[in-house]
Amino acid sequence: TFQPFLDPNREQSSSVPIAAGRRPSGPPPRPPFPPSTPSASPSSLRPSSARKGSTAMAEEAGRRRRAAVVVLGDIGRSPRMQYHSLSLANQAGMEVDIVANGGSDPHLSLRENPSIHIHEMKSVQLSGISKISGALALLLKAAIQFIMLIWFLCFKIPRPDVFIVQNPPSVPTLAAVKLVSWLRGAKFIVDWHNFGYTLLGLSHGRSHVIVKVYFWFEKHFGRMADGAFCVTKAMQHELAQNWGIKATVLYDHSPEFFRPASLTEKHEVSICCLFFLRYLRYCKNSICSLNT
Prior knowledge:
Blueprint: E1 2-3, E2 18-19, H1 42-45, H2 48-62, E3 66-74, H3 79-90, E4 95-101, H4 108-111, E5 116-121, H5 127-132, H6 134-156, E6 162-167, H7 173-184, E7 187-192, H8 196-204, H9 209-222, E8 227-230, H10 233-243, E9 248-249, H11 263-291
Parallel strand pairs: 3-4, 3-6, 4-5, 6-7, 7-8, 8-9
Antiparallel strand pairs: 1-2
Helix pairs in contact: 6-7, 8-9
């Protein structure tokens, strides 16, 4: 005789009649529940890409913000960019990398600030080629400076959140910084001190082809910036009306190391001026005696 038998270790729908007293054929029945295993943590249940993304976000949140100040010139002769660096380090709490040419030393407060790091580039001198062809010397100098800027901004400094570049000079600074800001995912801000093409026109004339190319270059890459500063309202109006650039007027304020002279310092300056005037009078009398 046969009687229905339901295997308690199998689902209801998979039960079949088995003869009494016979051992069922096939693989042994599975237990009703899988063996207990330690519960997995929620983080281990996330996909690996999500874990990597959350880790990167946590590292990004804990990373101190960073700015790169770019000056294709002597940083010691650019007080405005020195003020920017001090403000970013002391007031905004950012790490600041200054990429500039060597020359005169910047102020002591920059050199002693642990949040400010100065990276000096070598100045490019092509005096021999300039005697043969001035235009060729300008092109070669711009190409060499472009390569140097790319090297320093991409490989010599950590990735910044923002690039602040001084203009002028425009060639090749604006193009190099724009390219690097796109490659490294940073903002690109131009601080307009003057118009580079007008300064070049003083020596070559406004109608020279080099001045016209320089004007197009400066305007084209200047409009590609994510933000802009300028020094006067007149320049702000010029940039907005004729260049299509919205700039914020940022006036220069004296830093903390500028202060009224003390009484001792005034006395020393007065003595130096007095000796200098006496020296000029002595030179004048000596020349007059020689003529007579």
